[in-house]
Amino acid sequence: MAILSFHRLGYNLLRRITAQTKWSFRRSMTSAMTTSSPVTVGILRETYDPWERRCPLTPHHVRELLQKRPHVRVLVQPCQRRVFSQEDYEQAGAILTNDLSEADLILGVKRPADVGLLLPEKTFMFFSHTIKGQPENMPLLKACLEEHVQLMDYERLLDDNAGKAAHGDKLKRLVSFGRFAGLAGAIDTLHGLGRRLLTEGQSTAFLSCPPAILCDDLEQAQERFHQIGQKIKTQGLHREEPLVVTVTGKGGTVHGGVMEMLDLLPHKVVSVEDLPVLFETESSKTAQQHNVYLLPMATGDAFKRSDDGSFNRKDFQKDPSHYHSIMADKVIPYTNTLINCAYWDARFPRLLTKDDMRRLYNDGQKRLRMVSDISCDVGGSIEFLERSTSIDKPFFQYDPLMESETSDTIGPSGITILGVDILPTELPLESSQHFGNKLMGVLGELIDAKSKNPDIVGIPTHNLSHGVANSAITTANGRLTTNYRYLHQLMNRAEHSDQEESYQPLLALRFEGHLFDSGVINQVLDTIEESGYGVHMDEFVIPKTRPNNPIKSSIVLTILDKKAHEDHIDDLEADLQNLIAKVPLADATMTRVDHKKREKAAKAIDGPPVPKALVLGSGFVARAALESLARSKVQVTLVSNDPTEAASLASAFDNVDYVVFDVQSDQDRLSRLIRNSSVVLSLLPAPIHPFVANVCLAERTHLVTSSYESDELRSMGNRMKEVGMICLNEVGLDPGLDHMSAMKIVDNVHLRGGAIVSFSSVCGGLPSPEAADNPFGYKFSWSPRGVLRASGFPARFLLDNELIEVQGNDLLNNARPFVEGWPEMGLEVLPNRDSLKYAEIYGIPETRTIFRGTLRYGGFSTLMAILRNMGLMDEDFTVKESWYPTLLALSNRRGFEQLEDFVVACAQENTKEASRALQALRWLDMLKETPTTPNSSVVDAFCDVLANRLAYKEGERDMVVMHHNIEAIFEDGTTESHVSSLRYHGSENGSAMSQTVGYTAAAAVKFVLSDTIQDRGLLLPIKQQIYQPILDAVSKHGIRFEESVLRSPQHKPLHAEQHA
């Protein structure tokens, strides 16, 4: 043995000397023939993963490189794991050595396991997994900076195209191993399938399929597949039913690799529609025995819209919440083996869930034996892939009923799972050849650049292509390169914490979009730095991505008062907004975050995107809506034109950002925000809703409002339905909770075969009794103009089949005492607009009475009618400088010299009510020389008085009251009187009105985000699938209806009643 070792040592030494001699000869020849300086390339020993057998360059590539560029030397670190032997590299002209200190460029596949292996001032190329700020790889990045390593990352090595680069189009990755993952995955799947079927007592041709790692090369694996195919043709599969292999991800390179192998078997390609027929047809058993049935599935085959069963790729990519998987119902019941090659992230519905499989197993549908998740998204598209597997233990058993792994070996029950995440290295020969082929062009470019500039540390970048110089180089000369300066915040936060904490935080901004592909994040950082401010990165969220499928990222930046003055911070914000608007590839938005909520340390989150709600408007309802949304895992952006109000609201909640602008004056900005949101909640005035809806329609984004559905919105209904948009209106108090609580009763009656014969629904927002301490018994929490306007709307209703119509100018004279509920409060009720249309909306055309009303404290309507008669609600009368002369002018206009006589006349000669009106005017300070609002109409000036004098004082509560009285009759003549009532008081957290509207609207937003609404287009909360979840949600805030039913016999049956 010693003699053998001595001879081997001598042999290797001789080869080493020979190789060095050849190098010396080539070098001397080069010196004579060319001015190119010598360049040395090193190949690293792979240390990061024990199963990694790939190489960045094969011996063939080394030989080609040395032949084309005689001035190059290649050093290879010895490694017995490589698919190519050390002798192969030596024969190609490489020098085996552990010492790569003479190398100018050092290549590996994976990053070195130990950062101590990095050599100072050298250029390294490998997959570093650092560009997302992955915490586990930040020490590697830091070491590269400390050692002045020039790091080039294969992940960002782009296939350069000068035209595309010039126009700013996105470039594709140069190196991708998708095909080899598919090839190896198909081989391992059949290997596992053969073993699985054997445990069930079935010996099949698949037993002769080895795992990919035991094949010398792809050709050997393909030959084995040919042999398996011949056995299937001649001997059959010995099965009683078809063997169906379903392969997802059609159109992708992984899917292509799988099909490349499966096509070598005798097979027939089927569609989803073919499956039932395939299993029902008896005459085809012979064909079934000698064929494998392949079902290739594209995304559009696996996912369908929940409303109409269609598929639109652009729509699916923008908002996949509209879609659901058909796999469990249409495919898995017929599939024996599922090979998943489809891209997935958390925005998308899962292909197959635990619940799906449990349901199928409970129904006895257990055909699925094998699942190979080549995409290997743990807990993702295949929910029950709960861990990845290794090459040495590639399979585990999953029990759908127990919803857990039962064994790490193949067994006869449950589902066999394959989840290896480094499949390409199982075919290291072809993977390395592919890798090297892609790399050679770039390598030549790098060598030439170095050869021309031998004295420069690292590879000079000024002559490199765009895809290398501007993208792949992460670090150089001890610094992060321009495109990756954002990583400094994540890597070195601790070192600069004391310095940063000494600066005053001025502003925090959240940026969302294609921040890195477009390069806009670095432009943002440059702008901040050039403006003299410091910056701190608080949050860095990059969802899981795949090659050539960029996902939007999110960064929160806190601007620090370094040298610049705080007065200029608004200018900086405007500059940043203009900057992102000028980079369309970024498709970015910028919103404000309360800087007081910023994290102490920057954090990188590599996870799924969270649902995003855009809230328009910061009025009195917004706080309750934001509070409710903030409790859930929803990222909220608030848009307001009031910076103080927006900042105050956003500061109260951790997951609420804000942006200040007028939505109607900057539609482009609004469009970007809506495009990047899952749903919009508009709390703006109702006339603005159609404008917002048009933008939502263009961006296919859902919209929720608490306002009445308008004619303009109705005109968009069909288009909304066509694009799959939900526009859910009337989800406040009234309208909103009135619909929901009433329809709960109506649906219950109809479900039991009854008919509604009388429907009455009334609602009011009032001061609590203890706060109703003024002549009006009323107070305002917002502009009185809306209340005054509503007091002049016409109304009509049905009373025992008699149509009652009330003109607008007579509405206040038609109040009546409300005796059906809360008699101690002395309420009155006014008709509320057109009640008749609700017979159709609520589906109760049979009712003889339908009435909707507004509740006020008794005497309110009479008092307001007198003031209306006096002219205080006129639009065309301009006030005098003070109130008493204004009232006299109104009196004189009607021919009265004395104000008291005028008031009595306006009270229809009712002196008692006239006296009450004068007392009210005196209480409002309008019977003396109190200044009016200059140059305004009398109604506007009167509104200002009401808003000031009838405002809620600190600590006072408002109250919401709602009451339904619904009578029904049934086939047997039984009648029911249903009463449903709500009395809800405001609290220190907000007014009753703002909470009942805000909580309800927020519940609707969260329900839309849940993707359980099947309908699309214009919707009202009048279907049980919508109103019940919202009622359940608001009940958690204490908004609950008290319900009672009084039943009594009826002499006349229902059919007789209908014909009476």
TrEMBL record:
It comes from the Eukaryota. Residues 226-419 form the Alanine dehydrogenase/pyridine nucleotide transhydrogenase NAD(H)-binding domain. Gene3D superfamilies: Dihydrodipicolinate Reductase, domain 2 (3.30.360.10), Domain 3, Saccharopine reductase (1.10.1870.10), LOR/SDH bifunctional enzyme, conserved domain (3.30.70.2690), NAD(P)-binding Rossmann-like Domain (3.40.50.720). SUPFAM superfamilies: Formate/glycerate dehydrogenase catalytic domain-like, Glyceraldehyde-3-phosphate dehydrogenase-like, C-terminal domain, NAD(P)-binding Rossmann-fold domains. Pfam families: AlaDh_PNT_N (PF05222), Sacchrp_dh_C (PF16653), Sacchrp_dh_NADP (PF03435). The keyword Oxidoreductase applies. One of its GO terms (cellular component) is cytoplasm. Keywords: Multifunctional enzyme, NADP, Oxidoreductase. The keyword Flavoprotein does not apply. GO terms for molecular function: saccharopine dehydrogenase activity. PANTHER family: ALPHA-AMINOADIPIC SEMIALDEHYDE SYNTHASE, MITOCHONDRIAL, SACCHAROPINE DEHYDROGENASE. In the C-terminal section; belongs to the saccharopine dehydrogenase family. This is Saccharopine dehydrogenase (NAD(+), L-glutamate-forming). It comes from Amphora coffeiformis. The lineage of its organism: Eukaryota, Sar, Stramenopiles, Ochrophyta, Bacillariophyta.
